[in-house]
Amino acid sequence: MSADQGYREVPNRGLATVAIMAATVMQVLDTTIANVALPSMSGDLGASPDTINWVLTSYIVAAAIVTPMTGWLSDKFGRKELFLGSVVGFVFFSLLCGLAWSLETMVLFRLMQGVFGASIVPLSQLFLMDINPKERRGQAMAIWGAGIMVGPVVGPTLGGWLTDSYNWRWVFLINLPVGIVAFLGMAAFLPSIPKRIRGFDFFGFAMLSLGVGALQLMLDRGADADWFSSTEIWIETGLAVIGIWVFVVHTMSADRPFIDAKIFLDRNFAAALVFIFIIGVILLAGMALMPPMLSAIFGYPTVTTGMVMAPRGVGTMISMLAVGRLMRIVDPRKLIFVGMLLTAYSFNMMAGFTPQMDAWPIVSSGIVQGLGLGLVFVPISTMAFSTLNPSGLPDATALFTLVRNIGSSIGISAFAVMLTQNTQINHSELSAFINPFNPNLWIANPSAAMGDRTALSQVDGLVNIQAQMVSYVSDFKLMMLVTLSAIPLIFLLKSPKKSAGGAAAPAVHMD
Questions:
Q1: How far is CA 305 from the centre of its chain?
Q2: Given this model, what pLDDT does residue 176 score?
Q3: Sign of CA dihedral 17, 20, 21, 22
Q4: What is the pLDDT of residues 426-436, one digit of tens each?
Q5: CA distance 346 to 373
Q6: How many angstroms separate the CA atoms of 498 and 494, rounded?
Q7: Which residue did the predictor score with more confidence, 323 or 112?
Q8: pLDDT for residue 506
Q9: CA-to-CA distance for 392 and 119, rounded, in angstroms?
Q10: The CATH classification of domain 1-200, taken from the options 1.20.1250.20, 3.40.50.10800, 2.60.120.10, 3.40.630.30
Q11: If you ran DSSP here, which 8-state letter would residue 508 be given?
Q12: Tally of CB atoms within 10 A around 85
């Protein structure tokens, strides 16, 4: 049974797509839009800089735990019903977040927002595959991917503008009109999918929730808790390892596990999970590093930072709109190869950043990176499910989203740690040359060479900027190497032409 047999005709595919993407962009924006509002939120809610981070942590952990349940919930309550209920719950708790009166209520409402928002992205991908025939799924995944990848770029800029121009509460209240439009459109145009009787493996779900939840908590709390010098981080790491290990063993041995292990036998899907993990690492990690770099080293305000980073989203949009059509005539694996090379080249460009440059290198490297990631994301998102049986798609799309999110969390945490450590090391090494015996210091700043405190403070500031820049460059070089190391995985992907014949790439059947 091919995946194309899951196609369902709808009265108006265009309006249905608009409604689906409105819900998707709304949820994706919310993962980053609140970050820049935290300082204003902290003052209004009477929270300290440390405790206000629970506004982000509660959302991330809740979404990570609930995302794998998407497949079972859609079978139990109906795919359309779950999608509509998720949007309603997400919008309702967005309203409550905008009305929150204390840190405790905000954390609770954000947690519930994460619970209801967790299924929106995998369900949106699932419905776009449902309402598009096989020959149009490349274009459908291009539209979906544009929303997924452009959202995190736009989020901080939009959040900063809303906070500066109105109030931090509008960061959440803006979801109301978007959510209402999405709900009405989906209620009118999405097809109803028959429910499926399916048992619930509570033990498997509990172990997966324990592992994923503890992992996300460790990654999000690590920087504040000073990583493995903290008992809390060791406990969370232990729980993550135990939960994930027991879940894997249970899944391989149970008769009816929470997630059917047969979907991992599909080579395209298994390889795509590795690819999307790496994309998650380099995509959001790279974007997470840029705003603090532009602020600390170049002195850009939030709005300027958003404008400088916006061309990255433009590059992504261009490549995604093109790749949707190119996939009909070009082997998707070739597009992925070109995309990975472009992405690696963009990091090579970023490795040449200096504190003295203007905005053009940032803009040009962002455009190249956007073009590259767009060429990778769409073919991977399409080929991942091309040979799976429709009954396995709900679990598969949920895992696809979960693995991408975990990759993003690991990437952000890992590169942030390396940035901090390298900055300290580089500062120590560079400052060793600031002494009265260095003739270059006498030429550049005689007052500092004679021990003037004001002059030494100025020199220390310059040294700190250089140390940070060298650390950012090191991170960008490592991202380039990670990207290049993933290219051989392309050979694991099967050509869709071979898959179409059925013999080369049989669909994975699941009871």
A1: 19
A2: 92
A3: positive
A4: 878 777 777 67
A5: 10
A6: 7
A7: 112
A8: 39
A9: 16
A10: 1.20.1250.20
A11: B
A12: 16
Task: State the pTM of this model.
Answer: 0.78
In DSSP terms, which residues pair with 388 in a beta bridge?
A: 508
Helix axes of 267-296 and 360-383: crossing angle, nearest 10 degrees: 160
Query: What residues pair up with 508 in beta bridges, in sequence order?
Result: 388
263-511 topology per CATH: Growth Hormone; Chain: A; (1.20.1250)
Query: Is pLDDT larger for residue 68 or for residue 435?
Result: 68
Q: How many CA atoms lie within 13 A of 419 on its CB side?
A: 22
Cα–Cα–Cα angle for 321, 373, 404, rounded to 5 degrees? 110
Mean pLDDT for the stretch of residues 254-281: 82
Closest by CA position to 2, among listed 384, 260, 490, 387: 387
Which pLDDT does position 509 carry in this prediction? 39
233-251: average pLDDT: 89
Residue 508 sits at φ, ψ, to 5 deg, of -90, 115
The tokens of 403 are what?
């693995």
Structural domain spans, the chain: 1-200, 201-257, 263-511
Tokens encoding 449? 């060479």
Q: Which of 52-56, 230-234, 430-434 has the highest mean pLDDT?
A: 230-234
Measured between alpha carbons, how far is 144 from 303 in angstroms, rounded to an integer?
26
Beta-carbon contacts of residue 428 (< 8 Å; ≥ 6 apart): none
Instruction: At 15, list the tokens.
Output: 């309006």
Q: What is the dihedral of CA 350, 353, 357, 362, to 10 degrees?
A: 20
Instruction: Provide the token pair at 50.
Output: 């440390």
Residue 339 has pLDDT above 50, yes or no: yes
- Residue carrying structure tokens 């840029």: 290
How much is the pLDDT for 92? 94
CA-based nearest residue to 123, from 93, 171, 173, 89: 89
